[in-house]
Amino acid sequence: MTDKSQNLYSKFLLIWFGQFISVIGSGITAFALGVYVYQLTGTASSYVFILMCAFLPPFLLRPYGGILADRHDRRLMMILGDFGSTLGLLFIFTMMLKGNIELWQIYLGIAISSVFSAFQEPAYKALVTDFLPENQYAKASGLMQLASSAQYLISPFLAGIILTIMDIKFVFLIDVTTFLIASSIVVWIRKTLGGVTIKKPEKNNMADLREGVQEFSKNRGVVNLVITTMLVLFFVGLLQSLFVPMLLNLTTVKTAGITQSICASGILVGSMFIGVFGSKNKHVKTLSISLFISGIFFANLGLSTNIAFVTLAGFLFFATLPFINTSIEVLIRKNIDNSKQGRVWSIISMVTYLGSIIAFTVSGFLADKIFNPLLEADGLLSQTAGSIIGVGNGRGIALMFIISGLMISLIALLIWKNKKIKELENIESQDNKLSQNKYYVET
């Protein structure tokens, strides 16, 4: 590694650390608000609506955020995104200080904060390609997943402690502080490296968006991989939206937080392994095997009411995710020209997270109105499926997890048989090599 490459890698690690701190703060807020709303209403739908407010605005705005990430300094986009995210948090904090905060005010504050993540996330993803050579993509992906896992690994545990010693409204001030730390690091690095000049002719937004869509759609292997990822994220979205409500029907808030943290430590183990050792070149094989195994572990989440068994299944499921995510990211990154990655990543994120958005939209209804009633004491499935997985509150959610896990394993088999996805393995990424570290020019 050259001195320049080492310097850029060090700068990337500083940015990554700032995002790591910020994710912890956001995770504390998410867990605390989720428990607060679920205990207030007792319905999965009200809990899931928090996720909708967090995911829907960036989902709708992400393509435009990707365009900006390609047309402006990506570091500046991250700074604006982090600073802007504090606005919604401060709104909720202000409403709580006034007393008698209503649910719609919580939802609005979350939505305001999440709008700015649409501009921050594509810039952060594309920044990897600016700072690092291709042989470090997998390692960077592992580190980024490690940071993302902090909201599940560290945040629930911290939130449980914080909520026992202070009022929930002060959680938002903690989150604001972490955003400021993250943005301050990027400000310092931008000042150290200087401004940037983008080697790109000026175009209007629609032209840039069309170019991004064309770059994404011209590779059928990338399209097939993204669509299958969208299907996987639908089932993972069901887990994301209903795991805490299921746990709260099995145990206390404190134990639910500990369980979620232990489960997420699986991501920590997998991400650290990839971050230290990287990953092998056979990414399609790794993806298929990891995804198949993850589906089996996913299904086991619903088989028992024993919290230790659920925790073990969750740990094993989350441990497979870094291998899945890294394989997908490397296969896509090496097949997309760097100068267009901001737009393409935003489009890919929009397509894949459509699965999560659909899951968040329907999961509350499916749990409250269909599956949970089926597994009540006098439900239609109480004598069949109920004899295996149990009956009562939350067991309908458990059945949803079993079905979802089996579907994920089936999708893994389809990926293994897809010739277009296998062809992604053989691309040498010449465009990326030529454009590496040329997209940004220090001034």
Instruction: Please report which band the strand proportion falls in: under 5%, 5-15%, 15-25%, 25-35%, 35-45% or over 45%.
Output: under 5%
Across the major sheet, the strand order is: 1-2
Q: Which H/E pattern describes the elements?
A: HHHHHHHHEHHHHHHHHHHE
Please identify the top-level CATH class. Answer: Mainly Alpha
Please give a structural write-up.
This protein is mainly alpha-helical and 443 residues long. Helix content is 81%, strand content 1%. It has one domain (3-442): MFS general substrate transporter like domains (Growth Hormone, Chain: A). It has 18 helices and two strands. It has a two-stranded antiparallel sheet with strand order 1-2. It is globular. 53% of the residues are buried.
Detail the topology: elements first, then pairings.
Elements: H1 3-41, H2 44-71, H3 74-98, H4 103-115, H5 117-131, H6 137-153, H7 155-165, H8 169-193, E1 196-198, H9 205-217, H10 220-248, H11 253-277, H12 283-300, H13 307-333, H14 341-374, H15 386-389, H16 395-417, H17 419-423, H18 430-435, E2 440-442
Antiparallel strand pairs: 1-2
Helix pairs in contact: 1-2, 1-6, 1-7, 1-8, 2-4, 2-5, 2-14, 3-4, 3-5, 3-8, 5-14, 6-11, 6-13, 7-11, 9-14, 10-13, 10-14, 10-16, 11-13, 12-13, 12-16, 14-16
